[in-house]
Design brief:
43% helix, four-stranded mixed β-sheet, alpha+beta, single chain, 295 residues, extended, three-stranded antiparallel β-sheet, 3 domains
């Protein structure tokens, strides 16, 4: 249109799309402003503006209304079992979403399903993985329900607390307090000697490790407080799960679940393998003798 109206440019070159875009980029300059550092610093200029602020704003609105919006980013989907759910063939399942009948459905898919050969059976014959899609919602519910049930019976908790209290009860409590103060003083002096260069790194780390080991072996009545606090967390596990965000649930599952096997398009709570720190909490108390407080 500018070429048809014979609007002159500063040069004799015709108007191009790039030249028009350059005008739009310098719009604030024509409104009487000086823009530096790509809009970071904007100050009133000494030149006379040729358009008003209202004209500039109207131009910006007009350009935005004709600009293509493009593809909108898809919603962020959380897969709680990402990294822990595996197929029966051994491959880690991947989370993906599929649209079916106008609604979106989250699922877990084996990345090697349908390939020609992925492994050999006991008779060295090729085997293909034909695993079906695992619906995400019921699979995640099975794992979360198993975590909700990880509450030891009250008699088991009380037996463990009594055992801890008995181990912490020393006949001479003042002696352990003096030992604790002595070891803490030794750690502080070791740190100062290492900073001054009086002892080498090897000697410092060796003596530091020995002192901390002795310090950890001393009874500490605060351990009962920590035990009671952790017992409250485990007792309220169901409520905590219901109030947790998807990100918190993902972190919780990563801490507690080592792996879970999906077979024939579904999960089973029996196939859940717990991480080593979590295994004692998820083993049934009835598997042990009634008088055994060791579990």
């Amino acid at each position: 249109m500018l070429n048809r109206l014979r609007v002159n440019r500063r040069t004799e070159l015709p108007w191009t799309t790039a030249a028009v875009k350059d005008l739009l980029r310098r719009g604030r300059f024509y409104a009487g402003w000086v823009v530096m550092k790509r809009g970071v610093d904007e100050r009133p200029g000494k030149h006379e503006p040729i358009i008003t602020d209202a004209e500039y704003q109207a131009t910006a609105v007009g350009v935005a209304s004709r600009r293509r919006a493009g593809s909108k980013p898809g919603p962020y989907r959380t897969y709680l079992l990402r990294g822990v759910v595996r197929c029966a063939c051994g491959a880690k399942l991947r989370g993906e979403a599929r649209v079916q009948r106008g609604s979106e459905r989250r699922c877990y898919r084996c990345p090697v399903a349908g390939r020609d050969v992925i492994r050999l059976d006991d008779h060295h014959r090729p085997v293909r993985c034909s695993a079906r899609l695992v619906p995400a919602d019921p699979a995640e519910t099975i794992v979360l329900d198993a975590i909700r049930a990880a509450v030891l019976p009250s008699r088991a908790v009380e037996a463990a607390r009594e055992e801890l209290r008995a181990r912490l009860a020393l006949p001479r409590e003042s002696l352990s307090q003096r030992q604790r103060a002595r070891l803490q003083t030794r750690l502080e002096r070791l740190r100062e000697q290492h900073e001054w260069g009086d002892i080498t790194d090897e000697v410092y780390w060796k003596k530091r490790t020995e002192s901390r080991r002795e310090l950890a072996g001393l009874p500490d009545r605060d351990k009962l407080t920590v035990f009671d606090r952790n017992r409250g967390v485990m007792a309220s596990m169901a409520e905590n799960i219901d109030a947790a965000t998807p990100a918190q649930l993902t972190e919780l599952i990563a801490l507690l679940v080592e792996s879970v096997i999906a077979s024939d398009g579904r999960l089973d709570a029996v196939t859940i393998a717990w991480t080593p720190p979590a295994r004692p909490f998820f083993r049934r108390w009835l598997e042990y003798p009634q008088g055994d407080s060791n579990p």
